[in-house]
Amino acid sequence: AGHMSKQSLNMELTEMAEENGEDTAVLPQTYLVLQLNPETPSNALKWLVDKIKGQRRDGGAELVLLKQPLRNNEPIILHVSASKIKFLEAAEEMEIAKMDKNGQMREFTVEQLEDFLPEGMSVEDLLTNSERQTIVRHELENIRALAEDDHIPGFPSYTLYEGQSIIHVCQDCNIITKIYPL
After folding, report:
1. How confident is the model over 81-102, as a mean pLDDT?
2. Where are the domains of the chain?
3. CA distance linking residue 132 with residue 123, whole number of Å
4. Are 31 and 129 in contact (CB under 8 A)?
5. For 126, how many CA atoms within 13 A lie in the half-sphere containing its CB?
6. Taking the CA atoms of the chain, what radius of gyration do you get in angstroms?
7. Mean pLDDT of 47-52
8. Taking residues 123-148, what's their average pLDDT?
9. Residue 118's CB: how many other CB atoms inside 10 A?
10. Between the CA of residue 114 and those of 88, 101, 122, 126, what are the distances in Å?
11. What residues contact residue 163 under an 8 Å CB cut-off, 6+ apart?
């Protein structure tokens, strides 16, 4: 499964990046952009996309991905976001402090969501853009290699160790060439 034609790779990436099970009519806002090396073997790209979108129990980050249309030999651009519930769960896990209805700063919890929403405020307004960017980056950087991930597909010489950050390894071997907030 080495190098495929750019057209078939483009089709496969488009399918992979859009199978996020969410209503794609309302695409979530992009918070981070990943720039990928267009020379990366397709099996490595698919593996990375699966890790970013995959279920947590499978070692994934459960993030939402959207791919920009590919142009010849230009970097592959993936837009990264998360679902509403993912943002809330991650905010709780990261112990993000928010103001409650009584004006107290305290750690946000999903269970007490109502306490953090004053009259007329929607869930979408609870987290700032910078908090959302921080959450997406945190979730990406916390994708860890599982025991069965002994190397990145197509990169047999890059050994992976259980618990290692996959994003950092993908940067080291030039699969991910840039990560930037939007």
Report:
1. 95
2. 6-84+131-181, 95-127
3. 13
4. yes
5. 27
6. 18
7. 96
8. 94
9. 12
10. 12, 9, 10, 11
11. 144, 145
